[in-house]
Amino acid sequence: VGYSSVLTCPPKSNRTMVTWKISPKVGGPCTLGYRADQNKTDRTNCSGSMNWKFRPDQDPALEIRQVGIALEGNYTCEVVATEGNFHKTYHLTVLVPPRLTLYCDDHGNPVCEAAAGKPAAQISWVLESNSTPKEEGHDNGTVTVLSKFTAYSTNMTNTTCIVSHPAGNQSKSIAC
């Protein structure tokens, strides 16, 4: 989320037409088109964040700027060339790194929260804990995971929470 993504088309030398057909999860479909014989581009219902990366006559790659969850979906490039028609389809999945918070609750127990990640993060503790994480889904497709550390012994001084996520792992330590 927040980065740019570039999707490429099948590399063909004598392209006569290139069409990007985009079906995002949110909103209606859009198309970007290029005709070589008229050196003309066309766009229908595409947001400003989607455009040709370079000049489509040289490279018909699609650039998506500021990728967001709403842009998840299928992206198909159709190339018409003298050798035939060629298709390449991408399924765009957006990862959202969770925000990690570690704090002490009213009873002096460490609580680790991985907020608004996509997909849901995994929470573990450096020392064994019999904690059961709780998940809360949000309307935008992200998930908040909350885990309370419950120690087997009470002489704990420092506790470390580890959050594992495809967008990157994080850890924090706290003494309650």
Question: What's the arrangement of secondary structure elements?
Answer:
Blueprint: E1 5-7, E2 15-24, E3 30-35, E4 40-44, E5 50-52, E6 62-64, E7 73-81, E8 84-92, E9 99-104, E10 110-117, E11 122-125, E12 134-137, E13 143-148, E14 159-164, E15 170-174
Antiparallel strand pairs: 1-6, 2-3, 2-7, 3-4, 5-6, 7-8, 9-10, 10-13, 11-14, 12-13, 14-15
What does it look like?
This is MOR1A protein. It comes from Fregata magnificens. The protein is built from no helices and 15 strands. 22% of the residues are buried. Helix content is 0%, strand content 49%. The protein is mainly β and 176 residues long. The chain has a 5-stranded antiparallel sheet with strand order 4-3-2-7-8, with no helix packed on it. Strands 9-10-13-12 form a 4-stranded antiparallel sheet, with no helix packed on it. The model has no long low-confidence stretch (mean pLDDT 90). The protein is rod-shaped. It has strands at residues 5-7, 15-24, 30-35, 40-44, 50-52, 62-64, 73-81, 84-92, 99-104, 110-117, 122-125, 134-137, 143-148, 159-164, 170-174. The chain has 2 domains: 5-92, Sandwich (Immunoglobulin-like); 99-174, Immunoglobulin-like (Sandwich), CATH 2.60.40.
- What is the spatial order of strands in the main beta sheet? 4-3-2-7-8
Number of separate strands: 15
As a percent range, the share of strand residues is over 45%
Terminal Cα span = 34 Å
The largest sheet is: 5 strands, antiparallel
CATH fold-level label of the largest domain? Immunoglobulin-like
- Could you state the CATH homologous superfamily of the largest domain? Immunoglobulins
CATH class of the largest domain: Mainly Beta
User: On the 0-100 scale, what is the average pLDDT?
Assistant: 90
Number of helices: 0
| Low-confidence region ranges | none
Keywords: Disulfide bond, Glycoprotein, Membrane, Receptor, Transmembrane, Transmembrane helix
Organism: Fregata magnificens (Magnificent frigatebird)
Main location: membrane
Family: Belongs to the CD200R family.
